[in-house]
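Tutorial handout. Part one gives the primary structure; part two gives the three-dimensional structure as C-alpha cells.
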Amino acid sequence: MKAAKNLQQLKIWAPADTVSSFREACAAKQLSMASVLAQYMLEFSGKAVRARASKAPDYSTRKLRQIALMKLTQELELIREGEARSRDNTPANLQGSERWERSDEAVTLLEDAIDLLKDVMVP
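Part two.
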C-alpha cells in the first residue's frame, strides 16, 4: 500500500502493555490508532493552539472590551516594571548612557500608555 504524498510513516517504540492498552482504547472508541496519534502530534506541535489563537477576539460587549483593556493594562504594567527594574539595576558608570536613556524613555512611554488606557476604561 502506497502512502499519500503529504503523509509520512512514523515508527514509535513503546512498552508492549502500553501499546496493547492504547490499541484497546482506540478500538473501544472506534478510532484508528493513526488518527489519534496524528491528532495528538498536531496539538502537541502547537498548530492547534495557533489556529485557535488566530480567531478574532470577541469585543462585542462593553464588558468584554473592558476586560480586554484591563488585561492589556496589566501586561503593560508588567513590562514597565521589568524595564524599570532593568534600568534601575544599571551600573552607575552606565547610567546616563544611550542605552540607559532609551530604557528610561521606554518606561516613561509605557507609563503614559498605561495612564491613557486607564482613562479609556469606563467604570
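Part three, for discussion. The mean pLDDT is 82. The chain has two domains: 16-53, 62-120.
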